[in-house]
Design a protein that fits this description.
This protein is α+β, with helices and mostly antiparallel strands and 403 residues long. It is built from 11 helices and 13 strands. Strands 3, 4, 5, 6, 7, 8 and 11 form a 7-stranded mixed sheet that branches. Strands 2-12-1-13 form a 4-stranded antiparallel sheet. Strand 7 and strand 8 form a beta hairpin. The relative contact order is 0.19. The mean pLDDT is 82.
Amino acid sequence: MLALSDYVKHGKRNLFIAVQMALLFFVLIVMSATLYDEFRLYQPIQSFENRQGILYRNTSAHSEQPGRLLEGVKNIDHVLTYGVTGFYQKENTVYYPAAIYDETLLRTFRPNLSEGNWFEENADVLQVVISQNAHGWKTGDVISLEYTDANQKERTLQAKVIGILQEGATVFGRELGQSDDFHQDYRDLYATYRFEQEQNTLLMFSREQIESWEVPVDYNSTYLISYREGTSNSLVSENKRQILANGEKLSISQGDISFVSLEDFMASTKKELGRNVMMVLPVMLCILLVTLISLITVCTLNMRESYRQNAVFYLLGLDWKKSGTFAVIQSGFTLLLALVFSLLFLNFVYLLNLEDFFHVAIHMETILVVALCALFLFLISLVIPAVMVRKKQPVDVLRQERM
């Protein structure tokens, strides 16, 4: 009760630092979430770092003959690509575009979901993740989809909805939604999908699962290719000519095909990631520094004004060195208030629909950043009273009061 009474006594000052710490936590959440999302886009291509290879892009209409583009291409070590196909429902006369991802992409990249889960391995049923939709489909529903197989035979499959994309989610596959101009870096691999704009429900399937249904899938749009170590430049050039020749067989015009060297692509990617970090990091450090200065000032003033009270408690038998215990309790109150205020700020963002201005997402990494910052500030607020108590003796305090 004594600690609480002393805390209320310095209420305005403590409230000020609590609000300032809450703003710091809010900024940390927003900025760490932004960086998290950027580095999340880097995950699928991380294994291509320091490798020789090419990025192939085809901007023409998709071919219906999957997997033939790389026939005859030599010394391939790893390929990152995705497939596209489509389904329909006769009763709705609606076409549904679909993205097909292999195990590597499913493991290394997960778009933001508004509900449900991402793909599970060894599932007993055909799984599908869908975008927002006009049919009222939700997690757990089983939907029927029709398609024409490679033999021009009409077939139907049933898939269980396991997750629903967040509106405006970033998806792997530039052609699947809205995208910017080419940047020659990792951003070229992604698009933003908004059902409100596309007016089509996007479907996502596991390549391993969908292949068993003999669904025609096109993989001729984007390939990130790495070669085995020691591949000569002449073989790289030969492989490009082979890809162009294969493209002609698939009715893909050479004018619609472009190549970017993997080395240049990854260098541009690292440069863009570094730029994003340098846009965020100085702001975070400046806010942390201002909060730290304010915290030190408030702790110092509170402790100085509590000297006389602590000296009286000393005369009543309280160990002088333990008088800093009040500061520990008060620091805990301030930290708790700051966390509550930061949660209120987050709720205001959601209630006022400000997500377009403040990117708020709670991840384990975000929680860890905020927790470490809170712990650091808490330790600082403990150290200051402890140092001040050691430098001051109760006899000196009482003597100054008498003077």
